[in-house]
Amino acid sequence: MTDAPGWWGQIFNFTDYGQLVVLLQNSILAGALLGVVGGLIGVFVMSRDMAFAVHGISELSFAGASAGLLLGVGVVEGSIVGSLIAALLIGVLGSRARERNSITAVLMPFGLGLGILCLALYPGRSANKFGLLTGQIVAIDTPQIGALLTISVIVLVGLLVVWRPLTFASLDADVAAARGVPTRSLSIVFMLLLGLAVAVSVQIVGALLVLSILVTPAAAALKVSSSPLKVPLLSVLFAVVSMVGGIMLALGGSVPISPYVTTISFLIYVVCRLIAWGRKRRGVSGRMPVVAHPALGAAVETRAAGEPVSAGVAAAAAETRTGVDAV
C-alpha cells in the first residue's frame, strides 16, 4: 500500500520554513512581478484570442532554453531568443486568426522536438533538463533573478506605452485602422512583448504550463467582471496570488513549483466560473465585451444598449487618439 504520509510530506513539508522564506525573498519578488506581467498581458491575450499562440511561443522558448543549456550560453538568453523568433513568425506570418493558428500548430511540434534533442545531447544534471519543462524559480541564482526582473520591467513599460491604442485595436481592428491606428505595427510590438513575457514565465512554471500564468488569471477575471478597470486588476491579483502562493508552498515540498502554481490558478478559475454561473442563475448579466481601458468604456455602454460594437469604438476613438499619437 502507498505510504500516504510519505508522499504527503514530499508535497507539504514546512520544516525550517521561515529560514527558506528569508533566503528566497528575491525569488518571491520575481514571482510577484511575473504575476503582474502575466495578469496584464493576459487581458490582451484573451481579447485578441491568442491563447494558442502563447503555447506555441512557449515551445520555441523551451527549444531556445534547451539550446542555451547545451551550448553553455545561458538558459535565460536562449529562452528569450526562442520566444522572440516564435513571436515574430506568428506576428508577421499570422496576421489573421486562421493563419496564426496554422503557424502556431507548425511551430509547436518543431520547438518541442528541437528542445528534446538538445536536452538529450546535454551531458549535465537531469534536474536542469526537468526544470525547463516544470519550472525552477526556487533553484535559479541571483544573476538569473536580475535578468527576470529586468525583462519583466521592460514588458510592463512597453505595455503602458501602447496600452490605449492596443486596446482600441484589440477591440475592433478595422475601425482602429480606419482611425489611423497602426494596427499592424501594434500587433508585432505586442507579439514581441508577449514573447518576452513567455520567456520569463518559462523560467518560473516551465514550458508546458505557461498558460496558467498568461491565460488562466485573465480568463477567470473575465468570468466575474466586464469593467475596463476591474478586469486587469483582478487578472493581476489572481496571477500574483497563484505565483506567490505557489512559490510559498513549493518551499515546503520537494516537488517542482509548477503543480502548486497551476493548481491555485485552476481553483481560482473554477471559483470565478461558479460565481458567474450563480449570477446567471439569478438573472444577473454575465460576460460583456472585453474592454481593458476606460478610454473604450463607451464601447461597452453602446453594446449594452443594443448597438454594434463598432459604433462604440468610433465613439471612443477621439479620446483614444491621444494615446495613438503618443505611440
TrEMBL record:
SUPFAM superfamilies noted in UniProt: ABC transporter involved in vitamin B12 uptake, BtuC
Its membrane topology: Multi-pass membrane protein
Record family assignment: Belongs to the ABC-3 integral membrane protein family.
UniProt-recorded name of the protein: Metal ABC transporter permease
Subcellular location: Cell membrane; Membrane
UniProt keywords, alphabetically: Membrane, Transmembrane, Transmembrane helix, Transport
Record GO biological process: transmembrane transport
A Pfam family recorded for this sequence: ABC-3
InterPro entries, alphabetized: ABC_BtuC-like, ABC_TroCD
Segments crossing the lipid bilayer: 20-46, 67-90, 102-124, 145-166, 186-219, 231-251, 257-278
Major site of localization recorded for this protein: membrane
